[in-house]
Amino acid sequence: MAEQIGLRERKRRRTRQSLIHTGLRLFAERGYDQTTVADICAAAELSPATFYKHFPAKEDIVFADYPERVDAISALTSAPRPGESLESLLRRAFAVMLEPGRWSIDPDQDLIVIRTQLALSVPTLRAIALRWLFDIQHEWAKALRRAFPELDDITAHALIGAMVGALAGAGRAAIENGRHGAALVEDITRALDVAMAGLPRHLTTATQ
Description:
By secondary structure, this protein is an all-alpha fold. It folds into two domains: 2-58, Homeodomain-like (Arc Repressor Mutant, subunit A), CATH 1.10.10; 63-196, Orthogonal Bundle (Tetracycline Repressor, domain 2). It contains ten helices and no strands. The longest helix has 29 residues, at 2-30. The mean pLDDT is 88.
């Protein structure tokens, strides 16, 4: 039974990845508004019913990795190691964010470039991206406060805002400068180092 469940889950993930890869590439080739769910299904050789089992609408393909990232970083931030510093926790969290092979859309794939270009050029997607950005910062700031109760709400949101802003801003700049794959990850990591410079150094979690 466990093996069957494992096979079923692997098939589900392969199907989902096929829809993501196919959809993003069609959006890049034909244009977002010109590409329909039917087009994606035809190119991926899957039925519309299968598509809607995985995604409510075509825009959800573009942001397929966002829910995964929100949940993973919220869980990590809410459960720091005993005696861990604020800087260490945030560095671990954002290292996970950039970990290759973990996400539906990885930072070292060319799909991340396609997604960024779509979010910058399609008004509907730009609005969705901004909503996600606000929601992500809010969820992670709440998780950070759970880990470090001595942080007030404003400070927690400011710290997370600085980190997320560094990631998003540097990512966009790197892509506009033609930096892809490992070079893109390198630039984002350097930007996060700059943002980390302003962190309060005295905060640590309880040792018990």
